[in-house]
Design brief:
Elements (H helix, E strand, L loop, with lengths): L21 H13 L1 H12 L8 E6 L2 E6 L2 E2 L1 H10 L7 E6 L5 E5 H17 L7 E5 L4 H13 L2 E4 L6 H11 L3 E5 L1 E4 L2 E4 L1 H8 L6 E5 L13 E3 H6 L10 E2 L3 E7 L7 E6 L1 H13 L8 E4 L6 H13 L3 E5 L10 H9 L3 E4 L1 H8 L4 H4 L8 E5 L5 H11 L6 E4 L33 E4 L11 E6 L9 E2 L3 H9 L6 E9 L5 E6 L3 E4 L2 E4 H9 L4 E11 L3 E10 L9 H12 L8 E4 L13 H10 L12 H14 L1
Parallel strand pairs: 4-17, 6-7, 6-8, 8-11, 11-12, 16-17, 16-18, 18-19, 19-20, 29-30
Antiparallel strand pairs: 1-2, 3-13, 4-5, 9-10, 14-15, 15-23, 21-22, 22-24, 24-25, 26-27, 28-29
Helix pairs in contact: 1-2, 3-4, 3-5, 3-10, 4-5, 6-7, 9-10, 12-14
The structure holds 5'-O-[(S)-butoxy(hydroxy)phosphoryl]adenosine (WT7).
């Protein structure tokens, strides 16, 4: 071990974890590496329910993969039905708290009934396996019900985060080819209703959407278009309680989730059934060491992959009590989360470094005024966690008792790939530590050659794993070029990393033009495309600017078509414009106006220089390809004027 702080695993665990020590981890890892098909095949049999057994474990014809072919299963069955003839039937599946303080505890039995009824609603609208539905909902149990009802029938869903604008929603409905949109009047956020149905109305004006199903949540005014729009409760009132889960092929498309790519157009990441089910279920045990009596809380919204894998599918398939909270962490006070932990006796808490930093900043009096003794394990995801935030999380929230699992993964990976196992892996703050069994990552150069330990390189994954994406919807060529042709023979993650002398992985951030704002991947190109759609914008370049809370913040450089216009208010207007085009979470923290943007002789915007301007306020390094050096000095000078 080296000089960095190292924390022993499971200091506060009263009994042995699922993976009990480092030796057991190493043994599992070796077995998976030596015979992956046997390893995954055995686990698929023991961890999942099958209507029909699979005949082959893995068919790998790069870049196309099939897991567990010949098998028939259903993820909703695994999340619900299989628990019913066990003591889990009466156990709370979803423990929910609305922002206004309303609460619900939905048992597995009851959730099974709700999902079956809503699946019957979808069936009655003509939906069947292979059809597609959009889910655009607040964090209420019905969001999970809608997802599970789709999964039960084999309807491929795409959940769109409620913070996305109508424009972004429209693009997703179109790309998915959805016939149905499931939404709500709105949701509660910081004491105010946030409208969702009105965004749906705008999004589908010119689209051919057959049905919109609307849950009543806030009671806000909505317009209902006769024939197209239906209240959830009206349709549900006529639905029966019985709806058997459809036996689906292992590779049946489960969901599509859109994420930012390196162009302006989001990529529809496709995940399928059995491999994803196995990977999410297993990691609940390996990484979260889930126990029957745990109250497990992942704070992510269901609109992101973390919400899919670790609020809904993984926890329910593993039989957990999964807590869902609707609103803001700071409403009505900065102790809302700590009050939830205390009142519901939360034992596992999984959140993001951004949230940790934001709450840390409010001071220890907020967590200190609550009893957090129920916590036994903490998790982090979304970006590297800086050691100061790690230490605070460990000491002030975990009281030094709780291991922290820093979980590295992506929308594309479906579930966690690199993480400490809480009973086995000594932690080093800031490192995601070691790969899970069956996962073979490496840090390599452009040619796919491993770089020496301690050196920076590209993080790649050298073998397929069950939860991996299968393609980009409607764009298989982009799937191949983005993930499988960058580095010979490996999956390209888009992250830079280094491995230390203990083999621990340290993630250093994205190597593409993606930036990470509050743990959400955002494409700079996507924000640029939004900006240049504004009638006054000629060109835009977006870079990430370091931010104490959100990790990075959006900083936009803009040139205007009409240079004479007084642009004093235009900054605010453009920020609002991005909110309208994408959503508030993509709104630039800063808009800077320039006469021209720095470009290479071939006309490419040199974002590297702009990054340097926003980070160090000056430009170093090679600028010999710059077309006009004066442009850069003007941009740097502009900052000094403002400062
Ligand atoms: C990117 C994926 C799937 C989780 C939510 C984000 C960064 C994620 C970590 C971590 C360092 C991390 C990477 C990755 N990232 N987790 N524990 N340590 N970086 O999903 O939007 O698909 O973004 O988030 O850069 O590539 P996403």
């Amino acid at each position: 071990m080296n000089a960095e702080a190292v924390y022993p695993p499971s200091a506060g665990f009263s009994r042995r974890a699922h993976v009990g020590d480092l030796e057991q981890y190493r043994d599992l890892y070796r077995r998976a590496e030596e015979n992956p098909e046997q390893f995954w095949g055995e686990l698929a049999q023991s961890e999942l329910f099958w209507f029909e057994p699979f005949s082959s474990v893995l068919e790998w014809h790069p870049p196309n993969v099939k897991w567990f072919t010949g098998g028939k299963t259903n993820l909703a069955y695994n999340c619900l039905d299989r628990h019913l003839n066990t003591p889990r039937a009466a156990k709370t599946a979803i423990l929910w708290e609305g922002e206004p303080g309303d609460q619900r505890a939905v048992s597995y039995q009851e959730l099974h009934r709700l999902v079956s009824r809503f699946a019957n609603v979808l069936k009655a609208r003509g939906l069947k396996a292979g059809d597609r539905a959009i889910i655009y909902m607040p964090m209420v149990p019905e969001a999970a019900v809608a997802m599970l009802a789709c999964a039960r029938l084999g309807v491929t869903h795409s959940v769109v985060f409620g913070g996305f604008s109508s424009e972004a929603l429209k693009a997703r409905i179109e790309d998915l080819g959805a016939r149905v949109v499931i939404t709500a009047d709105g949701g509660w956020r910081r004491g105010k209703p946030v409208a969702l149905k009105t965004a749906v109305d705008e999004a589908i004006q010119s689209l051919d959407v057959a049905d919109v199903i609307v849950l009543r949540r806030t009671g806000g005014a909505v317009r209902m278009k006769p024939g197209r729009d239906h209240w959830w409760h009206d349709l549900e009132a006529d639905a029966g309680d019985v709806c058997p889960a459809e036996p689906l092929d292992s590779e049946h498309p489960l969901f599509v989730l859109y994420t930012s790519g390196t162009t302006g157009k989001p990529k529809g990441i496709l995940h399928t059934t059995a491999g994803y089910a196995l990977h999410t279920t297993l990691t609940m045990k390996w990484v979260f060491d889930l126990r029957e009596e745990d109250v497990y809380w992942c704070t992510a919204d269901v609109g992101w992959v973390t919400g899919h894998s670790y609020v809904v599918y993984g926890p329910l398939s593993a039989g957990a009590t999964t807590l869902m909270y609707e609103g803001a962490p700071d409403y009505p006070g900065f102790d809302r989360w700590w009050s939830i932990v205390e009142r519901h006796r939360v034992s596992i808490l999984y959140t993001s470094p951004t949230a940790i930093r934001a709450l840390l900043r409010q001071g220890d009096q907020w967590p200190d005024s609550h009893d957090l003794a129920s916590l036994r394990l903490l998790g982090s995801v979304g970006e590297p966690i800086n050691p100061a935030a790690w230490e605070w999380y460990h000491r002030t929230i975990g009281k030094g008792r709780c291991p922290i699992v820093d979980t590295w993964w992506q929308t594309e990976t479906g579930a966690i790939l690199i993480s400490p196992l809480p009973g086995a892996t000594p932690a080093k703050p800031g490192s995601a530590t070691l790969p899970l069994p069956g996962v073979i990552p490496a840090v390599v150069d452009f040619h796919g050659k491993p770089v020496p330990r301690g050196e920076k390189g590209f993080l790649v994954i050298q073998r397929p794993w069950p939860g991996m994406l299968r393609t980009i919807l409607n764009d298989p060529a982009r799937y191949e070029s983005q993930y499988w042709q960058r580095i010979p023979g490996a999956y390209f993650t888009g992250d830079a990393a280094r491995q230390d002398e203990d083999g621990y992985f340290w993630i250093l951030g994205r190597v593409d033009d993606a930036i990470n704002v509050s743990g959400h991947r955002l494409s700079t190109m996507e924000v640029e495309s939004a900006l240049v759609r504004h009638p006054l914008v000629a060109e835009a370049a977006v870079v990430g600017k370091p931010d104490e809370i959100t990790g990075q913040a959006v900083c936009a450089f803009v040139t205007l078509k009409n240079v004479d216009r007084d642009h004093r208010d235009l900054g605010a207007e453009l920020r609002q414009w991005v909110t309208h085009e994408i959503g508030a979470f993509a709104r630039p923290a800063e808009v800077r106006f320039a006469d021209a943007l720095p470009k290479t002789r071939s006309g490419k915007i040199m974002r590297r220089l702009l990054r340097e301007i926003v980070t160090s306020h000056s430009v170093t390094g090679d600028v010999t390809t710059l077309e006009d050096m004066a442009v850069v000095s003007r941009l740097a000078a502009q900052h000094d004027d403002e400062a």
